[in-house]
Amino acid sequence: MGYKVAVIGATGNVGREILTTLAERNFPADEVVALASERSIGQEVSYGEDDVLTVQDLAKFDFKGVDIALSSPGAKVSAIHTPRAAAAGCVVIDNTSQFRMDPDVPLVVPEVNAEALAGYAKRNIVANPNCSTIQMVVALKPLHDAFKIRRVVVSTYQSVSGGGKEAMDELFTQTRAIYVNDPIEKSVFTKQIAFNVIPHIDTFMDDGYTKEEWKMNVETRKILDPRIKVTATAVRVPVFIGHAEAIHIECENPVSADEAREVLRRAPGVTVIDHRAPEGYVSPVECAGDDPVFISRIREDATVENGIAFWCVADNLRKGAALNAVQIAEMLVRDYLKK
Length: 339
Known about the structure:
Elements: E1 3-8, H1 13-24, E2 29-36, E3 44-47, E4 51-54, E5 56-57, E6 68-71, H2 75-87, E7 91-94, H3 110-113, E8 125-127, H4 131-147, E9 149-158, H5 165-180, H6 211-223, E10 229-236, E11 243-251, H7 257-265, E12 270-272, H8 284-287, E13 293-300, E14 307-314, H9 318-335
Helix pairs in contact: 1-9, 4-6, 4-9
């Protein structure tokens, strides 16, 4: 017997990727339901190569009998419908920021803290971390286990797909406008994104950090270790898919570049491509459509004791969102929701 699965926000970038990932990984679903807001009712979305689902109205949907929902509708919508689904007995894997720091909601990256999933029953909700946090903690986990990380300094280079379809459209439209000498119009981003970088993702906080930077700090500490200190600078770049991060870590224990490289090579979910030569590293364009977190440019940071620096790249729509959510669902049916 299979499971009944709902995909909330099925017409968005992440929702469509979730449907693709469920099909690719042969998730044991007898029925998959596509849900979205009223304006999307009746649209069709692909599920695998052959199946097409008709989008239903999230606001009117009865979650009774649904085993798992994978939800990516935005935090405000999630605040209304995730608790409603959970109350109906559905386990919700929520990809928004709404529940990540709730102490009763586990924040899970399967390669990092799979044991935290055991707490899902408190609220029937599991939170999927922020995309930039996910790929970073997948890389940090094996290094922390081996060398005990004290401090992380990270600069992100985040693609526009993290801002949704409208953000991708704006990059395309602005790029085309530059080539044909049309006016540059802005609606999603605060500044021109085409041929530019913007050190501003999400809202500014009182201490000068943005909320995206704050998320990387608090989520890393909740997932990995509350003693780790994290400072982040999050930057939006004119790339359609794929987030990159330049990460510097300071460890308690001595570590060499060779030791770090060997530890990362053995880590689940990580692919090391690190050749000190032209093309000997992975860029965002090359990781699009792939599942692993790619690590390159591993080197010692001589400015701090026991320091290592490296380059980290992943598809933000897959491991940064959809794949991580589906991996959580796979763990649920394997260990907790057996039929």
